[in-house]
Amino acid sequence: MRSIIIASTSTIHGSGYLEYLLEELKVHFKTVNEILFIPYARPGGISHSDYTAIAAKAFKTIGKTVKGIHEFDSAEDAIKQAEGIFVGGGNTFVLVSQLYKNNALTAIKNAVNSGTPYLGTSAGSNICGLTMHTTNDMPIMYPPSFKTIGLVPFNINPHYLDPIAGSTHMGETRETRIKEFHTYNTQPVIGLREGSWIKVSGKTLTLKGTLEARIFEQGKAPYEIASNSNLEFLK
Amino acid sequence: MRSIIIASTSTIHGSGYLEYLLEELKVHFKTVNEILFIPYARPGGISHSDYTAIAAKAFKTIGKTVKGIHEFDSAEDAIKQAEGIFVGGGNTFVLVSQLYKNNALTAIKNAVNSGTPYLGTSAGSNICGLTMHTTNDMPIMYPPSFKTIGLVPFNINPHYLDPIAGSTHMGETRETRIKEFHTYNTQPVIGLREGSWIKVSGKTLTLKGTLEARIFEQGKAPYEIASNSNLEFLK
Asked: Mutation test of the interface with chain B: which of A146, A172, A196, choosing the one with the most B Cβ atoms within 10 A?
């Protein structure tokens, strides 16, 4: 049975790395002793080893060990054999470039569809959507494609930000950007605020966390959905 | 002699489209009667015609007519024959995709190097840099390359935004994003705040407007440069 957590962020303001999710992760990775961490997104350009150490420290508090994918000879084999997978945040362009380079996208898809529990945060959540067209990241690397895994039949916009009232900045709001996306693309987008996540259990998709999420569908006005909403209508 | 204006934004808060630049544009387009407008970036998904009408309205106030590139059979020929060129803002991914599709990048480079005066705002400024790796836009379209015209030997970050003091949002600041860019890329980046522009006259590059700009060089701490600074050191 598929078991996936797609989180807006790894860290909420004023709290440690993954801290707000740990109770959920205890259940999610219940049968898992060692988690395969994919640090390819390298937030701030951090090394794969240093990033893996951060993930390992958080998971240690719930009794799990973590091994970085860069420690294996074959990324594909590491994914095939993993008990559980965690893809961390950072830059989605860097992440997707590295996943393509290591033939990891199909391997992750197959593993997750076979029941390997998956956790994605931020960039690691973007890749669960159909494409990475709705990432917020700066395009610092050119990936061979914007197509991602498609574990859910829509796109993710993590770290969703509401327009800032009274802002004098002329750059586009997040909502304007997603509206532009729908000029050229048809799939729905879910704007996940920091602290929200999507829980996939088999065929059931649920919005979790305390906040509402914002839904963008082509040709419709955007709207809010409540926490614990079923997301299966979204395709 | 090359004559280029690379502006952070078309519009500053509380002012009309191009209004803050009109005095400068009178001089910049002094010898020009009709300006070729390239509306490919389509802000908010606006049509080429509607976007051209906005540009035409602004330029009418200084006695210039505007014709959209979509009104010509050949974009390349339109650029070759243009008296002056204006590439408007919107989405850089859409703009660059359309420029490649219409073989317009080389045509613009040749025209500008032959002396055709050029104005770029926002996305139209991004393409003056070496690459579009430092755009702020959402990647809603997949261009065949991130390589842009390289009218200047560095990258542009338009709408540069300082970190917001006291923000609780966990998404990256602009400075963090540009630092990540320098993990994988070597060229300097200029963060142009709204209201700033770069004026290129022959070989002279100058920062214009009243604000400072922020310079990012690989392996150095970012620093500010004053208005009217010469930018020729930046390469």
From this structure: A172
Q: What type of residue is B15?
A: S
Structure tokens that stand for A49 in this block: 């080893």
- The whole-number pLDDT of residue A164 equals 80
Task: Give the model's pLDDT for residue B63.
Answer: 97
Q: What is the DSSP letter of B17?
A: T
Spatial separation of the C-alpha atoms in residues B42 and B122, rounded to whole Å: 12
- DSSP characters for A164-183? PTT----SPPHHHHHHHHHH
- Among residues A36, A45, A176, A187, the alpha carbon closest in space to that of B219 is found at A45
CA dihedral A170, A176, B22, B201 (to 10 degrees): 80
Q: What is the largest CA-CA distance in chain B?
A: 52
Q: Retrieve residue B218's tokens.
A: 């690989």
Share above pLDDT 70 across residues of chain A, in percent, rounded to a whole number: 100
In the prediction, which pLDDT does B172 show?
Answer: 82
Kindly give the parts of chain B with pLDDT less than 70: none
Backbone torsions φ then ψ of B227, nearest 5 degrees: -55, 145
CA distance B223 to B234: 13
Residues sharing a CB contact under 8 Å with residue A35, sequence separation 6 or more, in sequence order: A29, A55, A59, A64, A65, A66, A67, A82, A83, A84, A85, A86, A119
Residue type, A2: R
Q: From CA A151, how far away is CA A130, in angstroms rounded?
A: 7
- CA-based nearest residue in chain A for residue B47: A183
Q: What's B172's DSSP letter?
A: P
How many other C-beta atoms are found inside a 10 Å radius of the C-beta of residue A176?
Answer: 15
The answer to whether the Cβ–Cβ distance between A42 and B139 falls below 8 Å is no
Per residue in B47-75, pLDDT tens?
999 999 999 999 999 999 999 999 999 99
Q: Which domains does chain A have, with CATH numbers?
A: 3-225 (3.40.50.880)
Cβ neighbours of B138 in A, within 8 Å: 133-136, 172, 177-178, 180-181
* Burial class for B78, CB neighbours closer than 10 Å (0-12, 13-18, 19+): buried
